[in-house]
Amino acid sequence: MKILIVGTGYVGTTTALVFCEKGHQVTGLDVDGEKIKRLQSGQLHFFEPGLDELLKKHLREGKLSFTQNESKAIEENDIIFICVGTPQDKDGSADLSYVQNVAERIGENLNDYKVIVDKSTVPVGTADKVAKWIKLHQEKNISFDVVSNPEFLREGSALQDALQPDRIVIGHSSDKALHLMRELYKDFNCPFVETTPKTAEMIKYAANSFLALKISYINELARLCDVLGLEIDDISRGIGLDHRIGEAFLKAGIGYGGSCFPKDVSALLKIAETNHQSLSILETAVKVNKTQPKYFIEKLQAALGSLENKVIAVLGLAFKPDTDDTRESPSFKIINELIKEGSKVKVHDPVVKIGSRQSLKQAGTVEECVSDTDAIILCTDWEQYNAIDWPSVRKRVRFPFIVDGKNMLNPNEMKHAGFGYYAIGKS
Ligand code: UGA
Prior knowledge:
Strand content: 5-15%
Structural class: alpha/beta
Number of strands: 14
Distance between the termini: 57 Å
Strand order of the largest sheet: 3-2-1-4-5-6
Bound molecules: uridine-5'-diphosphate-glucuronic acid
Largest sheet: 6 strands, parallel
Number of domains: 2
CATH architecture of the largest domain: 3-Layer(aba) Sandwich
Order of helices and strands: EHEHHEHEHEHEHEHEHHHHEHEEHEHEHE
CATH class of the largest domain: Alpha Beta
Number of helices: 16
């Protein structure tokens, strides 16, 4: 099949490459000329393991191309995936202006029957709006169908998640479109949820919000474990082995971040509010997440006293490992708190580069970052931080204290290395 992917971010680029892997002919379209130029020359504009090689392979084999020519791209393809951003608007809702713009261009250039697929995370009812925007911009009455097909890939493991999804959700309102979508995904070995577009749209918000809820639940429980002197990691395992609960997303730490959970939870809360329905459980999850970084800062204050003029090393800037994405990263919430308290902050990240500025200095190596510091806060669970030689770090620091925001390090090893160690919910 000939597929057009509109929007070449994490989701769009990964989706394009996965369809190439399945033997389809794919075109990537973006309004950002710089991104298109880079992608067409085989260079990714973001960090994501495994995508680089596939990009080069499919460009070389002629299965993939990138363009800015909207009309030609729309005319020449059978299925059009909308993968543009839906950022958070000022009132907390999802901003649909990019989606609307794509729909209008599709309307202007529709030359024969096509299926338009919403892959972007969008509020309930957006498929209907997309159909309306397309119709409003059509000169001739050419038929089309809009399908909702939300994406569930995670940054850092995007390729694997998209190649081997847990399920594929198809929200459709015509048998013709459903038939085409089944054909498109025929080589994927997973359950299919075939439903209405509105239900498919809600499934995506409900999934992200439920995962956020799980994280906030375990984080709040971890605070109680701190008081009771209990081990949160054992509790996560002890409850997670119950298949009804599941072990995933029960890792306590400084809270969730990224471009999805905060934005999508906020959008679902807005949908509930607009419909005069309470989702208080989710409101509480947001509150817990907002206060979680501060909880770690308080642990630091309990150990060091005032943080004014203290030099603090922050390890990790990305919102999670294996990505260079810092959107809503808890690291920056920690950094901002530290700067507010008058600390001098040194930061390190294996991939993210932010440069140095007043009160904030980026170090090239972990050793440089931790040298002459009064404390270290680990904010991203990059694998390489597991291999740090802590006894040798001990010799470099001014005061040996570590706050482990990801419950990642071994408390006994830290103790043997001579560090005071705090991680949430560790007896
Ligand atoms: C999330 C969802 O997991 C994907 O299914 C979804 O497709 C994606 O949003 C999206 O809507 O595009 P992502 O934000 O890339 O994926 O990353 P996650 O692995 O879900 O992590 C989100 C945040 O939760 C990170 O800050 C992570 O450190 C935190 N987290 C995760 C925890 O604090 N504890 C956990 O146990 C798991």
